[in-house]
């Protein structure tokens, strides 16, 4: 990993759109939103009404636990922290919202394979252990980023400035 020279601190996720979703609402469509989750942190897109081809173009960012992208990181991290889980749901007016499909992207694998996911279509699957059926696809962009504010602020303060001597006034 150190060969790469940098370790990302965040993963940025853009949920672009979906297609071929199952219709769970009236009029042969769904009111659709996507839950985006890494570990315990989760975001939701807004609800696109009466469609099986929703377009969101919504973005969020997750902080990565240190070490999860390294060899064996998956074994020491709490479950779910190495995976980006995208769950597409139908917003039900009454009762529980209905599961439409999900895609799980292993972050450690994506990072180590240098997979750059730019507007990539991911197949939506059934819940674990349930029979697979056609659930459509979700288009996402996944980017690893490094937010290093503290260091860069620190560097800026050191550059081009003579050291300031603080002397106590007697």
What does this molecule look like?
- Pfam families: C2.
- Residues 1-122 form the C2 domain.
- One of its GO terms (molecular function) is small GTPase binding.
- The chain is mostly beta strands.
- The protein has a single domain (2-158), classed as Immunoglobulin-like.
- Helices cover 12% and strands 41% of the residues.
- The chain has three helices and nine strands.
- The strands form two sheets. Strands 2, 3, 4, 6 and 7 form a five-stranded antiparallel β-sheet that branches. The chain has a four-stranded antiparallel β-sheet with strand order 5-1-9-8, with no helix packed on it.
- Strand 6 and strand 7 (98-106) form a beta hairpin.
- The protein is elongated, with a radius of gyration of 21 Å.
Helix content: 10-25%
- Specify the CATH architecture: Sandwich
How far is the N terminus from the C terminus?
54 Å
Determine the number of helices (DSSP H or I, runs of at least 4 residues): 3
Keywords: Endosome
Organism: Electrophorus electricus (Electric eel)
GO molecular function: small GTPase binding
Domain C2: 1-122
Compose a concise summary of this entry:
The chain is mostly beta strands. It has helices at 73-76, 107-112, 149-158; strands at 10-19, 30-38, 41-44, 48-51, 55-63, 83-90, 98-106, 117-123, 137-145.
Secondary-structure map with pairings?
Blueprint: E1 10-19, E2 30-38, E3 41-44, E4 48-51, E5 55-63, H1 73-76, E6 83-90, E7 98-106, H2 107-112, E8 117-123, E9 137-145, H3 149-158
Antiparallel strand pairs: 1-5, 1-9, 2-3, 2-4, 2-6, 6-7, 8-9
């Amino acid at each position: 990993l150190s060969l790469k020279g940098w370790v990302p601190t965040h993963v940025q996720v853009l949920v672009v759109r979906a297609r071929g979703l199952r219709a769970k609402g009236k009029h042969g469509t769904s009111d659709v939103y996507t839950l985006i989750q890494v570990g315990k942190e989760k975001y939701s897109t807004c609800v696109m009404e009466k469609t099986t081809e929703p377009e969101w173009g919504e973005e969020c960012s997750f902080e990565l636990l240190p070490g999860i992208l390294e060899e064996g990181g998956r074994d020491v991290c709490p479950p779910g922290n190495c995976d980006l889980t995208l769950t597409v749901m139908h917003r039900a007016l009454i009762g529980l919202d209905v599961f439409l499909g999900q895609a799980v992207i292993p972050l450690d694998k994506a990072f180590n394979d240098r997979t750059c996911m730019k507007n990539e279509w991911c197949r939506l699957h059934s819940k674990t252990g349930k029979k697979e059926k056609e659930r459509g696809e979700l288009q996402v962009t996944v980017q690893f980023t490094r937010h290093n504010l503290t260091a860069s602020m620190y560097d800026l303060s050191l550059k081009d400035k003579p050291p300031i001597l603080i002397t106590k006034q007697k």
